[in-house]
Amino acid sequence: MLLVTGATGLNGQLAVREFARNGSPARALVRDCAKARAAGLDRLAGIELVEADMRRAATLGAALAGVERVLMISGAAPDMAETQCTFIDACKAAGVRHIIKFSGSEPGSDPTRFRFTRMHEEIEDYLEGSGLAWTHLRPSQFMQVYLREAHDIATTGTLRLPFEDIALSPVDAADIARVAYLLLRDGGHEGESLEMTGPEALTMDDIAGHISTAIGTTVAYVRITPDERRRELLARGLPAYFVDALDEQTEERLKNPVAKVLAATHRMFGVRPTSFIEFLQRHAAAFSGKPT
Ligand SMILES: NC(=O)c1ccc[n+]([C@@H]2O[C@H](COP(=O)([O-])OP(=O)(O)OC[C@H]3O[C@@H](n4cnc5c(N)ncnc54)[C@H](OP(=O)(O)O)[C@@H]3O)[C@@H](O)[C@H]2O)c1
C-alpha cells in the first residue's frame, strides 16, 4: 500500500489526483474527512481516505496498516518538525519501509537563515537517522505562491513585492506532483536528495510582464520594502509567525540575486518542465479577478 499525507493541501492533493488520473490505487491520510469530501477527494477512483493526525501516533493505526512507502507532506507551520518526526517514528513502528519526504530548498541560500528550510533539514536529518529508506524531494518556490497576489493584481494592476531586481526560478506544483507520483509508485532513488526548480530564472519585472501577457492588461511590478510587505501581509490577516518566516526568506533571497535552474529531476522522471507562461494560462481567470 502507498500512502500520501497532507492530502487536503496543495501538494498532497495534486499527488493524490495524479494517482487517480493514472488509475493507480493509493491511500490518502487526511486530518478532517469533511474537508477532504468538500475537496472531492472521496470521489476519486482508487483513493482510500483515512482520517488521522500525524502528530498523534495513537490515531495512525489504520492509516499506516500495510503501508510500504509514504509521501510525507505537512504544511509550513510552527509544529512542522514535531509533526513529521512523530510521524516518522510511527511509520517505523508500523513497518513502513521507505519515506519520501516532501521537503523544500532555496538553491544557493543558507538553509539555516529561514525557519522552514531549517526545519526541513532537521526533519531530513531525523529521517536519515531513523534507519528507514529515505528520499528527499526538494522543490524551490512554487509558482502557485503568486496566486496569493492574484486578488491585488486584479484590483490594482500591480505586483507589489520586496524582491528588488533578484531572480527566482519557481516550479509548478503540478510538475512536482508528477514526480512525486512516479517516485511513490515505483520506489527507488533511496538515499537521494532531488532538487527541483522551474525552467527559467525570472525577475519580478519578468513575472509582471508574463502576467500582463496572460491576462491582456498591463501589470506593473512595484518594488516595496520588506517593512511595507510585512504590514501588507499582516493587514491581509496572515499569522505573525508566517509573516516573520517570509521576512527571513526575503532577507536571504536578497543576498542571492541570481537564481539557479535545476532541471535534472524533471529529466530523470520524464516530466516536461512547465513554463511560467503555461502556468499563467491555466490560472488567467484568477489573475484577471474572474471567479474560478
Ligand atoms: N511555499 C513554497 O513555495 C514551498 C516551496 C518548497 C517547499 N515547500 C514546503 O512544501 C510543504 C507542503 O506545502 P503545501 O503548500 O502543500 O502545504 P499545505 O497546502 O499547507 O498543506 C498541508 C497539509 O498538511 C496537512 N497537515 C498538517 N498537519 C497535519 C497533521 N498533524 N496531521 C495530518 N495532516 C496534517 C494539512 O491538513 P489540513 O488541511 O487539515 O490543515 C494539509 O493537508 C511544506 O512543508 C512547505 O514548507 C513550500
UniProtKB/TrEMBL annotation:
One of its GO terms (molecular function) is NAD(P)H dehydrogenase (quinone) activity. SUPFAM superfamilies: NAD(P)-binding Rossmann-fold domains (SSF51735). InterPro entries: Ergot_Alk_Oxidoreductase, NAD(P)-bd_dom_sf, NmrA-like. Pfam families: NmrA. Its EC number is 1.6.5.2. The keyword Secreted does not apply. This is SDR family oxidoreductase. It comes from Rhodanobacter ginsengisoli.
